[in-house]
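Q: Got a minute? One more chain.
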Amino acid sequence: MTNNNNIRNKNSNENDTKKSAELLIRQAAEIMPGGVNSPVRAFKSVDMEPVIIKSAKGSKIYDYNNTEYIDYVMSYGPMLLGHADKRVVDAVKKTSENGFSFGATTENEIVLAELINKHFPSIEMLRLVNSGTEAVMSAIRLARGYTGKEKITKFEGCYHGHSDSMLVKAGSGALTTSVPSSAGITECTSKDTLVASYNDIDSVKNLFLKNNGKIAAVIIEPVAANMGVVLPDEGFLKSLFELTRENNALIIFDEVITGFRVSMGGAQELFELKPDITCLGKIIGGGLPIGAFGGRKDIMEYLSPIGPVYQAGTLSGNPICVAAGIATLQAIENDNAVSKANEAARYLVNNLTIELKKFQDKITINSISSLLTIFFKKGNVNNFRDVMETNTGQFKKFFGIMINEGIFAAPSQYEAMFLSSAHSKDDLDQTLSIIKKAIEQVFN
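A: Always. Here it is, folded:
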């Protein structure tokens, strides 16, 4: 016999949970700008309320309504092992029992630095910081201090954190005109940041010609992943290296996303290149806040206290973040996690290519290793201007169907999908079915 009281109590609990989630969204909007601590989380570009997350495990993430999603955000990259890997959790617990922060060097900082150097031989010395933004900001200052030059060249559509000098894009189609992409950035700051077009080596040559002897460094995402996934054309990165050498400028690889993801040694291992300075983050902290920058010893020795370039941080090398990083990198090594995540992505992309063949004149899939983006655009997507031609209205509809069917992807056309070693074949098959359904509904 059915107990009506139990049914009423269950419905009441579900309603209370739903109300609580809605209440949290309202409370967040009252106390945090936009209700979030990073803009993309607000879901504004897809005209939806943000999701309030309660927990995550493996390939799954759970919202405050206890809805389960297969997660392809993976905290925008750090969770290569999946969420709450026991080895990382145990390392954090054990380390926290000995104290949270000391304002002094610990043995584990050396261990993590040596682990990074093992896979990134170009990083002869490194310094730990608290985020990718901080790593890039410090690397830029170091490049200027080392070379004695002021200008930095970046690429349109490449994101290097939110420091003032990196929030600059080209204006009105003129790649040599530096225009801030945020209020609050002064003209004096933006004038020293030059913007070239990704995959266009001539645009970089022109900047060197017009700023002869003034460019300290060129910074690049070797695989662009912050305008969606955009791959470097064959020979582009090699030509960029040659150009910097000819002009006595440094080259900085921002591998905050690609480091320990596209291969153990990042994009520089994949493309067999050796940058002067590398910036890391995300995976090296296993989901805790951390960053690092490093490179040639003669460059790194320009940092204080042994050199003239100042850089510091109260929480740099935080013991708990470092412990999480060590546990993560060791687990990635032991599990062959990079290959597993790559295999998962390859299975997904290969099957999507087959299943969505009739839509090949409407969408483009860019992928490398365990990163991919489905662009709502016909034809190649090779640079920022191609990305800007995508149909965001179609993406919005696609995203809404996906999340309602239990797929948690980034709420923006201009982000990557991240796979992990925790994604199972069942996850992937379910995802294939839902993506196919979503694409068909978008175009039919």
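A: The longest helix spans residues 4-31.
Q: Perfect, thanks.
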